[in-house]
Amino acid sequence: MSISDKDIKMLWGRAAGICCNPTCRIELTQILESDNYNVGEMAHVIARKEGGPRGIKGGGKNDYDNLILLCPTCHKHIDKSPEGTYTCEELYRWKDETELMIRSFIRNVARNDPYKVFEVANNSLSYLSNILYFTNIRLSFCKNTDARLYQMVTRVMFHLEFLNVSDDKREAIVKISKKIQERSNNGFYYFRDFERLARELADNCYAAFIDPYDKSVFNFARSYVDLLRSIVLDEFNSTYRYDFEQSYFKLFDNKDCEIEKILDEMQKTDGLGQDSSLEAKLFRRVKYLLYNEHRG
Fold first, then answer.
1. Digit-coded pLDDT (tens) for 236-278
2. Out of 30-39, 45-54, 197-206, 284-293, which region has the weakest mean confidence (pLDDT)?
3. Read out DSSP for 47-114?
4. How far is Cα 95 from Cα 15, in angstroms, rounded to an integer?
5. Based on the domain organization, do 134 and 257 belong to the same domain?
6. Last residue of a domain, one of 83, 110, 137
7. Ramachandran angles phi, psi of 168, nearest 5°
8. Structural domain containing residue 239
9. Are 106 and 119 part of one and the same domain?
10. Which of 146, 209, 242, 282 is the least buried, fewest Cβ under 10 Å from its Cβ?
């Protein structure tokens, strides 16, 4: 029985098309491009036949678990070497180390910038929070407020461009954002007309992030938005601060004295308003910490 397409794809994909011999690591796609590819590069750890290299009674299986990706040179050298020179254990180790190396590399390359995740979360959640607030007080339209809300949606789309999210989620977020912007450009309207779109925007932004760390950043932004809203509305209490600090410690190992100082000042101040210098200080500090977390 030949090697299945599924096993071929797994073998080549997990090793990223390179020879698993740690002293070689040649790119095997060059072989594919030159039309010299054959299944011989997919070497059996345990030989298919009993008498083959590293053979056992009954022979080895012809599947992913018993295969290792090697270049033709290494494949030939290993199989022609005296028995015991290259053991099954060593070949399995090569395979595991190569696949682990590739997975680690992909994670590092694909890891999202936490500050940009925060920006997407902060702006989508802030937009929803504002829409719900203005709907609740039955405010219809305010030019200055509208400009600020419009900017939030624009920032969601801007920072989303730099993040690793699925195409369908990206398209959904952009589609919702453009609907919001189009309606905003139509002149007079009621904020309640945007409530459904605002919820869809926030929900889709949250669903776009799969990585647990990205989810933690998003939840940190949620507690950040809740904290600021509570202060602006004079509803601040120790619960909001506690929730913010708990979400903070899911991202950072150490307490930040500057953050604590700002929170202490906020707790002593009533009715900060949306343009508070303390709010700006907190944002700058959060941005600094997230920015350095990504590059640390």
1. 788 999 999 999 999 998 889 999 999 988 877 655 554 468 8
2. 30-39
3. -SSTTSTT--TT---SSGGGEEE--HHHHHHHHHSPTTSS-HHHHHHHHHHHHHHHHHHHHHHHPPPH
4. 8
5. yes
6. 110
7. -65, -40
8. 114-294
9. no
10. 242
Task: Work out the widest C-alpha separation in the chain, in whole angstroms.
Answer: 84
Task: Compute φ and ψ for 83, nearest 5 degrees.
Answer: -55, 130
Digit-coded pLDDT (tens) for 185-225: 776 667 788 899 999 999 999 999 988 999 999 999 999 99
Same-domain check for residues 155 and 185: yes
User: Cβ contacts of residue 161 below 8 Å, gap of 6+?
Assistant: none
Instruction: Give the closest residue to 18 by CA, choosing from 8, 7, 30, 6.
Output: 30
One-letter identity of residue 106:
I
Q: What are phi and psi of 165, to 5 degrees?
A: -130, 160
Q: Domains in the chain: how many in total?
A: 2
30 with 145, same domain: the answer is no
Please check whether residues 224 and 284 belong to one and the same domain.
yes
145, 146, 148, 152 alpha-carbon torsion, rounded to 10°: 140
